[in-house]
């Protein structure tokens, strides 16, 4: 049976993974797409232009799924797509974990921006703009930032704490870290956590916001190529999500749950510098990594790796400072090189990828043309035992966060 509450040393494991990405529905679709190195980006639609010339010509479309395929609810039309994602991915994760009771579960989800489509449409309707349609009287509950966690709590009957976390592109990682801490401290025995994002906008205005900052890739084929010398920015994703079921280890073992990996640590911090650019020395990332891994030498590192000029160089510099040269570094890959950047969902998707890499002993490769020097980048999909791994996430505003995962070996 689980240990009594109040123990600070409680161990936390991942027992369920639900992923909905541009590769398809479920964890297997995610793994298969990454290991095969399949492209999931396409050219932007003609409707995105509206008189603006995009520097970046490619994007990753929002996953195609129907909420009705996962849950039966009369409230579907009172929910935005971010909430649809959260509920559907929670259903997948709970099924994957062996259908544990979520009655007392903590629901902690990361959202970076959240669904804006209903807000945009209602704004146009309010102004009486041509083609603006009708004003949606549910616009506030549909677009409020906590909606994703609230709907999971409502539809799964969870009476534990339910809230969202926002730390820009690190939101999903922060949410998982919060859930890990609650279980480790004895405040919960089970948690539903991860990150979801829906940035669908038929006019392309959300993508234009990033394009106008010069943050998106200008590559003529759309591949962002993180950690290469020719990188030019990140690949915009309309969203996706991953939800993890976390449990206190003894409870998970007692009920015979599958265990993907143990969460052995979480660390976070802030650079307190620019709202957009990372501080070039990488000091905050260095401090984060040292707190997270201590003297441990992880076998694998899932990097933030966006493909932007400043961020990749800064992250690479920090990795070299903490671990040394390429021969001493963990094997490194960047999931955003294939799936693009799903903002608040990316950290959760990458945590899921990291846990699956540990469980399966498989690490996806990178798209590498003229890589940065002195980095142990995975040239292609690789099979190897992974005892421990790190997943890193950074966000606009100077947020830095990381998770340390370990193989769930028996005592």
From TrEMBL:
GO terms for CC?
cytosol
Q: Which residues does UniProt assign to the signal peptide? A: none
Spell out the Gene3D superfamilies in the cross-references: 3.40.47.10
Q: Which Pfam families match?
A: ketoacyl-synt, Ketoacyl-synt_C
Superkingdom of origin organism: Bacteria
Question: What is the protein name for this chain?
Answer: 3-oxoacyl-[acyl-carrier-protein] synthase, KASII
What keywords sit in the KW lines?
Transferase
Q: Name one GO molecular function term.
A: 3-oxoacyl-[acyl-carrier-protein] synthase activity
Q: Which organism is it from?
A: Candidatus Ozemobacter sibiricus
Q: What is the lineage of its organism?
A: Bacteria, Candidatus Ozemobacteria, Candidatus Ozemobacterales, Candidatus Ozemobacteraceae, Candidatus Ozemobacter
Q: Which residues form the Ketosynthase family 3 (KS3) domain?
A: 9-407
The UniProt entry's coiled-coil ranges are none
SUPFAM superfamilies for this protein? Thiolase-like
Q: Into which family does the record put it?
A: Belongs to the thiolase-like superfamily. Beta-ketoacyl-ACP synthases family.
Q: Name one GO biological process term.
A: fatty acid biosynthetic process
